[in-house]
Amino acid sequence: MEEIAIKVVNLSKKYKIGERVPYKTLREEIIKFFKRDRKKENEYIWALKDVSLEIKKGEIVGIIGPNGAGKTTLLKILSRITEPTDGYAEVYGRVGSLLEVGVGFHPELTGRENIYLNGAMLGMSKKEIDKKFDQIVSFAEIEKFIDTPVKHYSSGMYVRLAFSVAAYLEPEILFVDEVLAVGDISFQQKCLGKMDQVTKEGRTVLFVSHNMSAIRSLCKRVIWLENGKIKKEGDANSVTIEYEETFLKYGGGLSPERVRKNEEIKNKEFYFKKVGIFDEKGNQKIAFKYDEKIVLNIELEGKIEEKFHIVFRIYDKFGIMVFAGASAEFFNKYFTPDVRKIKIEIGPTNLTKGTYRIELLLRKGKIQKFERDEIDIWDNACFFEIIECSPFETNWQMESGRDGIFLIPSKFEEI
Amino acid sequence: MEKILIKPGSKIGKINLKEIYEFRELLYFLIWKDIKVKYKQTIFGIGWAILQPLFMMIIFTLFFGKFAKIPSDNIPYPIFSYTGLIIWTYFSNSLTFATDSVVKHQNVITKIYFPKILLPLSSVLSYLIDFFISFIVLIVFLLFYRITPTLNIFYLPFFIFITVITSFTFSLYLSALNVYYRDVRYIINFLIQIWFFLTPIVYPASIVPEKYRSIYGLNPMVGVIEGIRWSLLGKEITSLKMMFISVSLIIFLFIGGIYFFKNMEKTFADVI
């Protein structure tokens, strides 16, 4: 049996609603006392409810979930910052927690002084810090400013220094909360590299992040928390992909169904009203793999006297048109005036990872004579995302921008 | 391998001395930070530690000693009041500072685990440096007035220790309460002003009538100041009973304070 690093059994944490908001004043307490205004059970919220899990030694586990899911609460309980209301946890080994970098930095102190202070807070001994001091400074790239008070640092320098101290902390178990959302891209990559190295040294890491690609590249196993409970647990790739699909479906500006607002419609006679994005099986979603087909279900409104045809265009995040598909030009397909619903099947897209925009156009007239008239344009009809593109033999993910737009099959051989 | 069990806390928190020992380096760094930060960007630096009690002594000598002719148990009034003032300055400054210590470190408390008791402790200890500097000035005064300490001087470290404990004790209560009720910040200034006059600093404890001395002894600072003056200046102890009440009250409050703080500390991160 493999050794266990963390064992969590039915862990729960209850907060009073409003307890996290500002401190009380004595006056309020006294008034409350006389009013007999005691808290009722329904004024509580369970930040964590009956969470049980086991993490083995040397494992690196990602924790994902929307805001307020209980991710940070879990790490806070495991690092003994706050106490659970119920249940228990066993942690084997020295714990280091990085819930935020640079905690305890004092602006008046120099970089050198802050390294010692912060190191001590994170649980390093002076000896240890002495030994790693030069590495910390060079990792942070702040050699020249080491004796300058950190209040004069740029925010980038500050964050780099803070991360470096934490990176050289060598606990057996490390909790990391969203610290990589800092610094410039090259430093972020350096940090990810460092984290990777940490796990190769056989240490256990719990890693909370909203950055799915970071999670996928670092973790094998992922725990998905939602409303204080474990919603899903398992292989990093499948869980994060499912998470992205669900999360994106309900969250943010990316939606698999778009209804056009009246202000957006210029030609009120005949126009696009609604579009939904589906996969081949009819599931509504916006996150696809490179080799999946995308299906658009379009609804039209208004009146038209003659036949019309339809065009879609795909743009990448830089605004470059990736592809344009046209019913008339490609298939000599014209729709009769009574048609109000149209299905477009696109793909497999063979696009690299990234977000793409679809523009829709309605046209009338014969294409042979170049008498095409635009009836309606819906420029931001919908968005979709390619979340996986690793078609070759390794799990190298092709990212839009870095690896181009399209997947073009290729081979390498000696001759 | 070390195993940490995390479960809902029992009513009375255990006092983990081993853990405090393990974090001794952090205590050292916290004290060092407080000292460093306190006098950064000041022109006069650590000189402020001397100026405050010195000026008060001059004013008090003039008004209370010379004009109002307040007795001072046959000790030159400047020495008498300065001895009381450096103790009082240490007590009031360190207590005020320590009261804010937990709240001031709220970002650390919500992000890193460590024994929170180190915060008031380091605050109280960091002010000792100011105390020792103003104490050097006292030695100069003693030489000037040709006052030779008696054998009682061997008890001086004990009474300085009691002074630190007194300040630490009250900061345990106040710093923890401050997390819940920021009213404490306002109370503290007011409290210290009143307390000053309830303590034999500008006047000797001997002016308090016999029958009230036991009640007077309920102010722990009475015992502290009396003890310091006794050990340093060879002044007779006004009332042993009063002294005993003060010191035992401090010990009682100290133990209570540690439990109080331990109990409150569990919810700091949720409330602060």
Q: Any chance you could write out the topology, listing elements then pairs?
A:
The complex is a heterodimer of chains A (415) and B (272).
Chain A: E1 4-16, H1 26-35, E2 44-56, E3 60-64, H2 71-78, E4 86-92, E5 95-98, H3 111-121, H4 126-140, H5 155-167, E6 173-177, H6 185-200, E7 204-208, H7 212-218, E8 221-226, E9 229-235, H8 236-250, E10 257-259, E11 270-278, E12 287-289, E13 294-302, E14 308-315, E15 321-326, H9 327-331, E16 341-346, E17 354-364, E18 373-388
Parallel strand pairs in A: 3-7, 3-8, 5-6, 6-7, 12-18
Antiparallel strand pairs in A: 1-2, 1-4, 8-9, 10-11, 11-13, 13-16, 14-15, 14-17, 17-18
Chain B: E1 3-6, H1 17-22, H2 24-38, H3 48-67, H4 77-99, H5 101-104, H6 106-109, H7 118-126, H8 128-144, H9 156-180, H10 183-197, H11 213-216, H12 220-233, H13 240-265, H14 268-271
Helix pairs in contact in B: 2-7, 3-4, 3-8, 4-7, 4-8, 4-9, 4-10, 4-12, 7-9, 9-10, 9-12, 9-13, 12-13
Description of the molecule:
The complex is a heterodimer of chains A (about 425) and B (about 270). Chain A has about 425 residues and is an alpha/beta fold. Helix content of chain A is about 25%, strand content about 35%. Chain A has helices at about 25-35, 70-80, 110-120, 125-140, 155-165, 185-200, 210-220, 235-250, 325-330, and strands at about 5-15, 45-55, 60-65, 85-90, 95-100, 175, 205-210, 220-225, 230-235, 255-260, 270-280, 285-290, 295-300, 310-315, 320-325, 340-345, 355-365, 375-390. In chain A, the strands form 4 sheets. Chain A has a 6-stranded mixed sheet, sandwiched between helices. A 5-stranded mixed sheet of chain A has the order 12-18-17-14-15. Chain A has a 4-stranded antiparallel sheet with strand order 10-11-13-16, with no helix packed on it. In chain A, β17 and β18 form a beta hairpin. In chain A, α4 (about 125-140) crosses α5. The longest helix of chain A has 16 residues, at about 185-200. Chain A starts with a strand and ends in a 27-residue tail after the last strand. The relative contact order of chain A is 0.10. Residues about 250-255 of chain A have low confidence and may be disordered. Chain B has about 270 residues and is mainly α. Chain B has one domain. Chain B is built from 14 helices and 1 strand. Chain B has helices at about 15-20, 25-40, 50-65, 75-100, 100-105, 105-110, 120-125, 130-145, 155-180, 185-195, 215, 220-235, 240-265, 270; one strand at about 5. In chain B, α3 (about 50-65) packs across α8 and α4 packs across α12 (about 220-235). The mean pLDDT of chain B is about 90. Chains A and B meet through α1, α2, β4 and α3 of A and β1, α2, α6 and α14 of B. β4 (about 85-90) of chain A pairs antiparallel with β1 (about 5) of chain B, so a sheet runs across the interface.
